[in-house]
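Q: Here's a chain of 275 amino acids. Please give me its 3D structure as tokens.
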Amino acid sequence: MKHILVLLTLVLFASCSSDDTSKDYTSLNEEEIKAYITANNLTAQRSNSGLYYVIDEPGIGENPISTDRVKVSYKGYYTDGTVFDESDDEGISFFLQNVISGWAEGLTYFQEGGSGKLLIPSHLAYGSIDYNNIPGGSVLIFDIELIYVNYVTENDQQINSYLSANNLEAQKTDSGLYYIIDEPGDGAQVTLQDEVSLTYKGYFTNEQVFDESASSVNFNLANLIPGFAEGLTKFKEGGSGTLFIPSHLAYGNSAIGGLPAGSVLIFDVEVISVN
């Protein structure tokens, strides 16, 4: 399907440039939504913006905020039941900043794992303009399931899948970091205040290497991503093992230096010396 949720810059521009000929569908949409709710015996809540939403399952994870990335499965249709867009069961990922305002607002009423329905008037979607075969002034209804908020749950599943596929046993910290100690080392324990000399190889869960030291390199732990810094404190001088770092302990929702946003980063490390 065509996944029409994402609002491109061109669409935003077109909406702004056509204000002088636009029609206000607010009252008509309100009546249409209320009639649909009544006809289908729905219990819906209305926000101050005019969005209606139905929460079937609230979810048990975190609520997304406007700057978050989410993964959602959905079906979009009109009040007459005609489907205009639908994701597969796996859902699609996007940032709330990049979708129509009714979606961006509506998803904040759900927690991760939640599901329900959004009934979006046209002033919170595409207004009075036609867009991708959606007539101007249309009320859009979406059945949605909020699969993930950001990458925490998804990364945890990816790490566990990798461990299982490779017959590895790792320990998990409260932060969500996983690590394996092959050799604990017999020297000084690494602390967050230390500078260390180490060798490393960094790769993704598909085994693609993205970085590797040619020889030992020196790092101050204060200057490292949180997952790498925390992981090194599990070793003593002379120790070696593997760190499995979820994106919230690395680069989060940002793509950095060729590393895709939300990536799990795996590092084989050996601590040569401490301070």
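Q: Can you summarize the key feature?
A: Residues 26-39 form the longest helix (14 residues).
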